[in-house]
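Supplementary Data S3. Sequence and structure tokens for construct A.
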Amino acid sequence: MKQIKRKIKESNPFRNRKYIAIMLYIFCFILFFGVFSRFAWIMVTGEINGENLVSNVHKLYTRNNTLQAKRGTIYDSSGNPIAMDANSYKMIAVLTDEWSTPKRPIHVQEPKAVAEVLAKHLSMSEEDLLDRLTMDNSQVEFGSIGRNLTYEIVSAIEEDLKKEELTGITFEEKKSRLYPNGIFASHTIGLAQRENGEQESQSLKGVLGLEKEFDEILSGEDGWIEYQRDRFGYVIPNQEIEEVLPTDGNDIHLTLDRRMQIYLESIVEDVNEEHSPEVLTATLMHAKTGEILATTQRPTFNGTTKVGIDQTWQNYLTEYTFDPGSTMKVMTLAAAIEEGTFRPYDYYKSGKIQVGGGTVHDVKPEGWGYISYLEGLARSSNVAFVHQVQEMGFETWKQYLDSYGFGQKTGISLPNEYSGSNPYGGDLQRINTSFGQGISVTPVQMLRAFSSITNGGKMVEPHLVKEIIDKETGEEKVFEPEGTPTLISKKTADQTLEYLTETVYSDVGTARGYAVEGFEIAAKTGTAQMIGEDGRYLSGDSNYVYSVVGMGPVEDPELIFYVTVQQPELNGAGHGSHVVQKVFNPVMKRALEYYSSEETEMDFEEESEVMANVIQKNTQAVIDNFNTTGREISIIGSGDTIVQQHPIQNAELKESDRIMLMTNGAMTLPDLTGWSKSDVLKLSELTGIAVTFEGEGFVNSQTLPPQSFIESETKLTVTLSPNE
């Protein structure tokens, strides 16, 4: 009976429910306490799973935009812009409606109508545009056609879309760098662009030339602006906006003379097309100050279209080393005069000489018999200069080489400058340096050394930058390089100049072809053998670096002009020096006329009709102006501002010259009927398009119709026929 009562008591359902209820209460309390504690923790710390909720909400409703600093402008010596900032735009079509609201649609609703509008302004067919606008994507871009659009094109598109009440097209603004002169000391000026992998970045970075060397000075410092917006993206009114204004980059003024630079480019381009040298350099320097007045090279590139940039990234003024050849004899002559070993009217036997375990011979191995050392200079006799070094001694000659700065960087404001080399090893190599073999130099090193002859024994530092102007303060930082004394005296320098006239005006002088009408100059030519990969000198008629240095006027030198041409195709020129003459003679004559006249600007422009500067001028105004002169012009593009021109400013303008003007709008193809092959090639250079020619003569047909849109990737075939 007791057992039965115990079992009934143990199985009492009310007692079990009480225990269950108590457990539930405890569980609920724990759960509530846990949730409460979690919320309390979140409220106190403002974080969940390591994320700051306050920061996330701030980001959701806060817009923080970078205020882009304007990159400084690079000017020539007269204040004309060489490199400047410009705004460009990228077009994007929004195809999804997930970001739209009924009252504010931002996606493409009528693809066909939008394609019709865009086709009016872009070089893409309506069908191709419609294909893009109907893709199964959230948004779509338009390749190179939709990039680098000008403000004028963007404004025209937006206006037409607004008229038709069409939506879905948006534009991203970005900074770009404009080089309005095209080919204009391109490797020296350099490039500024967005780096690979940073396409979203608005900042431009200098990657070549002066743009790279002075990137920090040109770049400035970006600012920022921060404001609140609602969930629909609208700016909340009456809020306090935080803003830090950008600091624009500083402007740089160069020593380059625009007129001489343009003229040099045109002459060098003609020679390059005719003789296709592996390397060509030409630099004009003010002999008293070291200011680089004009400099160029081939191969080069167009700063605007970037055509040719893949040929080389080297600036040959500072990154090209070579054996200078007989132009080094200028420096040997000066050292010999200073040491008293050069006796101009003493005689020696020319031809060849055994020295240092090898043989040195003249350009004419059998020689000219017994001749004076002055005649040996005129004939550029190697044997004559071997005697000079032998007499002064190897150690003394080495001191002069060091004094001239060979093997040392000049410190010119360009990146990656080479120092060259002077191993000065065995006796034969030491002897060879007397006539410019066995020593490696850069063009700018040679210019520095030559300046000691025109400055009474004191070298001036070649330089490109005249001043830097701080946009914020207006403060000007002027560059005034100091001269460097050498071992030669003013008397020696003057005597060297006088003797160097023999090479130009003597009946046997090697520089007779470099005489400049109306001016007396000193000059020295050079023909240096090239070393192959096996370390041996190359053979063959063209495997040389041909060069010349000219200094004038002799009575008081103002200019030094140095030209090098490596491995040209002679094409009937007879000798490599004749190729060099095609660059040196016209440029040196123009420069001497320009800088020696008190009324230089008037003389320079009145010599013949010249092309005016129309860059950055209004397109219609330029057209109207040329119409009054009766000249026919060809417009390339649909914009309202001229950004490139051919012929370039101050180029001699003949009646037969075709004037081509490129605008800032999308490029358009002119009617080429009747154009010469050379004119079409100039068009190709301006625009970057690839042209294929069929036949000879003048254009009578073209594969793309006139006024069709073109871009740098466009390929064009033109048919030529004889002019009847």
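Construct B, processed identically:
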Amino acid sequence: MPSFSLPTINDNPDGGWGPSSSNLPGRFKFKDIPYAPYSKSDKLGRFADWNETTSDNRQTAVGLPSTQNSRTAGRRRDGAQAFGSGTASAFAYFHVEDESSFSLVDNKAAPPRRGNMFARGRGTARGGSAYGARGGAQRGGRGGTAANRGAQRGGRKGWRDWEKNTRTRESSVYISPSWGMVEEIEFHRLAKLRLEVDEPEDLDTYGRLFAYDKTYDRVTTKTERPLQVVDRMKYNLTTSEDPVIQQLAAKNTATVYATDIILSVLMCAPRSVYPWDIIIVREGNNLYFDKRDPGPFDNVTVNENASDPPQDPPPPNPNNPNEKAPETPSINSATSLSLEAGYINHNFSFQAVIENPPPPAVDFAHPNPFYGPEETEPLASCGYRYRVFDMSVTEDEDVKICVRTEVDAYTPGVGNPRDGSGLVTIRALNEFDPRSQGAGGAPDWRTKLDSQRGAVVATEMKNNSSKLAKWTVQSILAGADLMKIGYISRVNPRDNTRHVILSTTSIRPADFAGQLNVSLANGWGIVRTVTDLCMKLPEGKYVLVKDPNKPVIRLYSTAHSTFTGEDEDGDGFEEEQGDSAA
């Protein structure tokens, strides 16, 4: 009868379960060997599963026939994950040689073409036959969904991306090497700021307003009106040159001083694409937000937020003496469209008012502060309202901003314009050529404006999100009840000198801000953040610059003589390069 002896039992003096690490036999035998997790339910049929299927359905085995790979890979249930496969394997092999020059050669035969008509312009070099991109099973060329069309065109991001001009934009102002960067803020940080501001306090009013001509609300594409050239004088002085603001600053009315045009750009900064710059001057406890003259604030952008915005032609190569800039730039370039949009906005706001009574013009408490006695040209309909907004967060601090706001007309029969009732701001959207580069997929206004106005408005809200947001903020800051937007198109797409008014719409600024997803609280948070940042700095002149190619704003410190023509180091206006619509 065989003998039986009990195995050796190793007691754990530490009081825990299992053998102790001190008396474990052969404890140095497996030292520094990594441990791989396993499951008791796994069958130990093989040492390693070389046929494991990865997430992209590629077999990890090398040199095995495809039939064997497919057979062994299907043994595990679909969707089941091997125990411990999510952990970092210590047994993994890492290849250290450089394989950047490796490329996969596709030896599959290309499908035959189905006719020269489809092959022309849609070559097979972009990932398939030309006919398949047009017709095929999913009909993605014309009738399919946008996702199918994008997939069949080889996974490109958008339509005709290879024709887009990817030239980088130039900064709106020449950044001298002598400037020192103080702060850099990304747009995603600006979008998180919030500050609730109460209703403003009206200080004083200046200027004269004419009544808005309601007949323009009944204009349609069938009863279009020509846009007239109206010779009127309208001022747009910067903050520090405003005589009224100078008087208010002498009385310490507020801490920060700005105009509604400058303030709207800062409040809508996360939407901006084109570059801009704001001059910030700190004198004592006062802060002034100024603009350059001329500068980006004097321009009206066109399709700034479109996926393929209008572009300016690249400058001539200085190393090539034979290359010259075109004598006449394209009428659909970014700079030409900006000048055309400014021309249209001014003339439409001058034309859409009634200058000859009735109804009569309304004079504010004081005449226009910028119109001197030597001026002979007639003034445009414009009223200035100086208002103070309280940006204080706690009761102990006193941070107020004085803003010069503008209104363009008043609605007759609606309250008293002197008390802020029935005020109107007038703006204009322009159509240049729906088929040109930079049109942003806009429909033809003459065929869609009356029947599908919603589609036209949605396209403009997408392509001109920044411009419409700034107009809305300006109207809200001025306390306007309505914002009149005219739809103006060229008589001929190839002629940018003659235009017609196709329609006019009335929008309440507060309601339009909700449609555009414009948050006034976010805008005031941005203004307060920039104010706190500048008030912590010593007295001097600073420039807030929007990066021309990145969603970033930077604050630079400059000399007092910058932009005054008195500096000799190349920091002045004479050496500015680039424009806001490049």
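The CA atoms of residues 52 and 58 lie 9 Å apart. The two ends are 102 Å apart (CA to CA).
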